[in-house]
Structures are given as structure tokens and as C-alpha cells.
Write a structure and sequence with these properties.
Layout (H helix, E strand, L loop, with lengths): L1 E6 L2 E4 L4 E9 L4 E9 L6 E7 L4 E3 L7 E6 L4 E6 L8 E9 L4 E3 L3 E6 L1
Parallel strand pairs: 2-11
Antiparallel strand pairs: 1-3, 3-8, 4-5, 4-9, 5-6, 7-8, 9-10, 9-11
Length: 116
Amino acid sequence: QVQVVESGGGLVQAGGSLRLSCAASGSIFSINVMGWYRQAPGKQREFVATITSGGRTGYVDSVKGRFTISRDNAKNTVNLQMSSLKPEDTAVYYCKVITAPGPAYWGQGTQVTVSS
């Protein structure tokens, strides 16, 4: 069994910063891709950022230049540094871990609220 736990969410004013962290533990042989998704009220869950085991990153256009994803392969952790936050970034942020060759796992989510 694999556990995925996010932390670091909270309330911040527009223009501020937050750092989200995610740790995967349990029966993990190896992790291929780690990423962050978010779901705002009344909207579908959307992709935010992803990083491969080799360090290749990808971002949704709306966060490019503001968010930075990083990971520690030895610790099975991934972080999302969020800067210049906007009210439209308000959402529950979920960590996704894609193991190799196994399935993907999701965390329970952490709330990020950006006030205007």
C-alpha cells in the first residue's frame, strides 16, 4: 500500500507565496512521475505541474513563471513553490504519484485560499 500526504496549504493574500509539500511512503519500488493538480469549487480537477524522475518539468500555462515544482527522489517527496498568487489560484491542491510499473496514487488534498 502507498500513502500520499500533502501539507503546506493555507490562506494567503494576493501576491503572496506558499509552499506545498507531498510525501509518498509505503510499498514503492520506484516513482516515475510526481505532480500537482487542483480543483476549484464547481470546476473539474486540472493539471498544475509535473516532474519526472529525471527532473523534466511541465506546467499549465496559467502558472508558468509563478510556480516551481521540485522533487527529492531519495525521499520520494515533491514540492510546489507558489509565488505571486492570485485569487483564481484558490483550490484544493492534490498530489499525484505515478509509480513504475504500478498505478497512480492521490493524496487527500490541501486547501489553498488566496484573498483579494
